[in-house]
């Protein structure tokens, strides 16, 4: 039997819309409450260095508004480490971050950055924050995650999502194989594999069907769909598709 796949909803882009006008509507906290009310399993929020969507004060508001675990996506910087230690989210997912990028393009080079990641991963783990590394699904990065003692990795599904969008069926198949092989290898080594980035109603099912993957984190598409059908309905449909694939 395959265990239930958790859905973490990334609410960053509710804050993107709010910030476009500089006021406080739409409030990402209201989105978090909706996620909780429709049975989402967690709230994911990325506090970016430039605060382009989620702001510092949103974190505490989200944490006090729902009982759902907060997965804080963060760059591996002293500033973000200090914020994570102060807020103590359930999980911290370390992501690469470049100011000029539109979104998180590509995974964290956990292998190349090993020495600078050691103290950050150690401090988060000592504070009982579940550390996840947002990496490309390959052996080099997985091996680095193992050496760093990360209990979780999140595989970047961006390449898969792009290939899917471009109708490149061979690339879709090879990406799926890569993610699926690495999910099996992670699980075999005691690391819990998650996945996310660019997932939609159309492309979620093959990823959701990978039995070792325990959690998907999905944001942009759900918030985009919410404009047309409402956040509640968009989350319910994603949940149904994920369950059907399992
Ligand atoms: N997981 C991580 C680590 C992310 O950084 C993001 C956002 O880039 C997501 C999941 C969600 O991606 P998307 O908004 O494309 O669904």
Characteristics of this structure?
alpha/beta; 246 residues; eight-stranded parallel beta barrel; binds pyridoxine-5'-phosphate; 49% helix; 11 helices; 8 strands
Written as H for each helix and E for each strand, in order along the chain, the element string is: EHHEHEHEHEHEHHEHEHH
- Total DSSP helices: 11
Compute the number of strand runs.
8
Largest sheet: 8 strands, parallel, barrel
Spatial strand order of the main sheet: 1-2-3-4-5-6-7-8
In percent terms, what proportion of residues is strand?
15-25%
Arithmetic mean of pLDDT: 96
Uncertain stretches of 5 or more adjacent residues: none
Helix content: 40-55%
C-alpha Rg, in Å?
17 Å
Ligands and ions found:
pyridoxine-5'-phosphate
By secondary-structure content and strand pairing, the structural class works out as alpha/beta
Distance between the termini: 9 Å
Could you characterize what this model shows?
Helix content is 49%, strand content 16%. The radius of gyration is 17 Å and the shape is globular. Strand 3, helix 4 and strand 4 form a beta-alpha-beta unit. Strands 1-2-3-4-5-6-7-8 form an eight-stranded parallel β-barrel, surrounded by seven helices. The protein is built from eleven helices and eight strands. It has helices at 12-21, 28-37, 56-65, 78-87, 114-126, 139-148, 158-165, 169-188, 204-208, 220-229, 231-245, and strands at residues 6-10, 42-46, 70-74, 91-94, 130-135, 152-156, 192-196, 215-218. With 246 residues, the protein is an alpha/beta fold. It binds pyridoxine-5'-phosphate. Pyridoxine-5'-phosphate is lined by residues 10, 46, 73, 93, 95, 103-104, 134, 154, 196-199, 217-221. Residues 10, 46, 73, 93, 95, 103-104, 134, 154, 196-199, 217-221 line the site of pyridoxine-5'-phosphate.
């Amino acid at each position: 039997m395959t265990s239930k796949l958790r859905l973490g909803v990334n609410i960053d882009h509710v804050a993107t819309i709010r910030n476009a006008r500089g006021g406080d509507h739409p409030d990402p906290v209201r989105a978090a409450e909706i996620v909780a009310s429709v049975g989402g399993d967690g709230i994911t929020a990325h506090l970016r260095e430039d605060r382009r969507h989620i702001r510092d004060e949103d974190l505490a508001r989200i944490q006090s508004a729902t009982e759902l675990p907060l997965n804080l996506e963060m760059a591996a910087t002293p500033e973000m480490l200090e914020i994570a230690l102060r807020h103590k989210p359930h999980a911290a997912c370390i992501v690469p971050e470049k100011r000029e990028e539109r979104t998180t393009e590509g995974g964290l080079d956990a292998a190349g950055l090993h020495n600078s990641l050691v103290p950050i991963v150690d401090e988060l783990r000592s504070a009982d924050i579940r550390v996840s590394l947002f990496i490309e699904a390959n052996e080099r990065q997985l091996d680095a995650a193992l050496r760093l003692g990360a209990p979780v990795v999140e595989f970047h599904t961006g390449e898969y999502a792009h290939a899917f969008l471009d109708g490149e069926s061979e690339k879709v198949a090879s990406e799926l194989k890569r993610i699926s092989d690495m999910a099996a290898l992670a699980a075999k080594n005691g690391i819990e594999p998650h996945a996310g980035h660019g997932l939609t109603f159309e492309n979620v099912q093959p990823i959701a069907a990978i039995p070792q993957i325990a959690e998907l984190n999905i944001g942009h598409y759900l918030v985009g769909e919410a404009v047309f059908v409402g956040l509640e309905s968009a989350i319910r449909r994603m949940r149904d598709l994920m369950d059907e694939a399992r």
